[in-house]
Amino acid sequence: MNTIANRQVICETLLNLAKDDQDIMVLASDSRGSAAMAPFANEFPNQFVEVGIAEQNIVGISAGLAHSGKKPFVTSPACFLSMRSIEQIKVDVAYSATNVKLIGISGGVSYGALGMSHHSVQDIAVARAIPGLSVILPADRHETKRMTEALVNHVGGVYVRIGRNPVEDVYESGDYEFLIGKAVTMREGTDITIIAAGETVRVALDAHEALKEAGISCRVLNMHTIKPLDEEAIVKAAKETGAIITVEEHSVLGGLGAAVAEVVVQHQPVPMRILGIPDEPAIAGKTPEVFKHYGISADNLKRVALQLLGQ
Amino acid sequence: MEIVELQLKAAQIRKDLLTIIHRAKTGHTGGSLSNTDILTALYYRVMNIDPDHPQDENRDRFVLSKGHSVESLWSILADRGFFAKEELLTYSQFGTRLIGHPNNKVPGIEMNTGALGHGLAVSVGMALAAKRFGKKYRTYCLMGDGEQAEGSVWEGAMAGAHYKLDNLIGIIDRNRLQISGPTDEVMGLEPLEEKWASFGWHVVSIDGNDMQELVQTFEAVPQVADKPTLVMANTVKGKGVSFAENVAHWHHHVPNDAEWEKALSELDSSIEKLKREGQVC
Question: Domain named Transketolase-like pyrimidine-binding: which ranges (chain A) (predicted)?
Fold first, then answer.
């Protein structure tokens, strides 16, 4: 069990890389604390920009910096970054093809009891509708580190969503290659596939174990990149396992499940279920409580899987 | 280029922009005519730019935040040789690069704009990069006056002053008209100069259709150390075409054949007069 939050890992990784790369810049919207970026701000003041509580401005300024050859990482709460500044993301980042990395922190329901204004469960739908913008949800500290290293070398607009709290490890080590747009097969299986991203990868792995006890062979795909989507892995899973469940910390409208379904119905129709947050203001509470409420759990995944398999 | 040559150039650019709008049957005539003198001063005299090296890292940057009045900019970029003049004929045609807003697939365009209230923040980023990392270029951002109603303009204004960007020049094409009528009837802006000053900018108010004043103002920047400059360029919407001047309807009215011919003949008269007298009356 790891106790480091992904936001902290991003800071540590950027701190390390910025020593040799003067082009890396971090921007915050009065969020250097919540983004865990204070160490970066202290160590590299010349490569840090405080914009204040102004999410439209932070994206515009980042686009201007990127236009001048910098590699800006915008760190701002996912709920505001993905919605309040979406036009700047569309025009200044995606349309203008500027090399801006947008890191949505405290995404999903990780702001817990703060309510719908602070929950970010529409961000994937919004971000993936924008041409040219990549969308990534890393699962744990190892993946977050690999992803951050990849992003520094990747040219193009990217929206990343991470949560607030420490996440249990899903990888044993960071000793693997993170490729943007390439899903990771976390567990092999032949009867059914569960596709997850971000913090729900842990839930999917637990479901794999629960299903194993019931004699079901369940493949688990970590679809860390929701755009560009690894269509090949989805079609392969549909062909080889015949049924798919997606599980996400996001509205069931327009997120991971919708993205997978778009591929499945067009290329390899198989029975499918989409688990996530229904089309309602998400209930307030700690992330595990909210997950349990909406059936984002190993138990419920097992139940849905058995149902889908007619058992 | 000397003042009278710049004035002649501006008249020619007005003819060109009216012609592409007339031909395409679409465009933002009034605002393009009002900002033509500003753009002419910048692109033919003030800014350090080289059409043969449009990506030179030391070039001055220009962002047309009021992206809808791009026809003057297309005409100028073509005339300055950023792309072939014949391409102007494709303006607004199917599949063209020369769309109704700035498009950075075209050499000479830095950023895509069109959604109002975006340009200043982007310009702050460009100017901040220069200031922090020792680059000599300046960043010019032209906004509309109706655009001042966008809250994001003021986020950019705040940041420009906070970071002491004396290499950043904001310009407002203050023609006092927007689609629905006078700017101050649509949404009160006054006291606009005081607002910018209170946000920490050095504010200069000039006649934005007076070439001499434009050149002198831009060449004197920065007038105050550690402060961005806001040039309040008081202009006339539809400038240069008698029947379009100060008429809100011409915001995006397209000249018909007769109007186009009359406008061109008026501009030809201005050109003749300039050549005769060597100055604008």
Answer: 4-170
